[in-house]
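Long-time lurker, first post. I've been practising inverse folding by hand and with some scripts of my own, and I keep getting stuck on stretches where the structure tokens seem ambiguous. Below is the full token string for one chain I'm working on. Before anyone asks, I'm not after the true native sequence, just a reasonable design that respects the backbone. If someone could post their per-position residues I'd love to compare against what I wrote down in my notebook.
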């Protein structure tokens, strides 16, 4: 398969590609929750500092829904995500990325936040969750403060795992596209792991991330479609 050809779920179900490209861990853990009164409170603060929404602080078991075909698809996606989580330190050290695509209510944010939590506890690695719109807003806010765009960008790059959610909700102006591409490109150059979640199919993501941004993500990652119905409307 050409290196420029997008890889989809069928190509990564066993994560053989990921295993083949793992490297010996060289990074040291850079984040540990602050020592507070209880482990539960420490975890809550750590998740909050990472930007993980409160709804996803607690582990919630996945409950299958839909027809038999949709349930089988869910099992296969869960297997991939579980293997990614089980080998998380190696995935982080080699900068592996994931693009989660599918309609609303299919569990993309749920599973992406589970990976982000897993970075923090038990692995003591750094993570950050942010929506695409909030990422753009942080750049724009810097225009009226003493913080430079470069300082904003560094905050996105320094975390070992970034979950960039709701890509496609923004207006897709040239400025917004370039801001998001800059985040992806900077993380790519530093070999940082990024998980992108969007309601749009892979073919449409370049509209919001640019062709270059999507290419960077796919070079060391894979696309996983969440091709089933909305859980909230089951």
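-- Answer (accepted) --
I ran through it position by position. Result:
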């Amino acid at each position: 398969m050409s290196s420029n050809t997008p890889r989809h779920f069928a190509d990564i179900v066993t994560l053989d590609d990921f295993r083949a490209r793992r490297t010996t861990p060289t990074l040291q853990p850079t984040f540990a929750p602050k020592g507070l009164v209880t482990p539960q409170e420490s975890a809550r603060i750590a998740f909050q500092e990472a930007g993980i929404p409160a709804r996803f602080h607690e582990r919630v078991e996945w409950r299958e829904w839909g027809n038999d075909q949709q349930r089988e698809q869910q099992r296969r996606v869960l297997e991939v995500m579980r293997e990614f989580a089980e080998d998380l330190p190696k995935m982080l050290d080699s900068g592996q990325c994931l693009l989660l695509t599918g309609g609303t209510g299919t569990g993309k944010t749920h599973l992406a936040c589970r990976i982000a939590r897993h970075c923090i506890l038990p692995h003591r690695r750094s993570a950050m969750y942010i929506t695409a719109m909030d990422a753009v807003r942080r750049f724009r806010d810097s225009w009226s403060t003493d913080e430079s765009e470069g300082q904003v960008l560094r905050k996105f790059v320094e975390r070992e795992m970034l979950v960039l959610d709701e890509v496609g909700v923004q207006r897709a102006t040239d400025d917004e596209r370039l801001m998001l591409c800059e985040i992806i490109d900077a993380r790519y150059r530093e070999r940082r792991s990024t998980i992108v979640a969007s309601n749009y199919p892979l073919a449409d993501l370049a509209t919001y991330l640019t062709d270059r941004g999507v290419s960077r993500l796919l070079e060391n990652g894979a696309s996983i479609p969440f091709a089933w119905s909305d859980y909230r409307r089951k």
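A couple of notes from the structure itself: Residues 1-36 have pLDDT under 50 and may be disordered. The radius of gyration is 17 Å. Happy to go over any region you disagree with.
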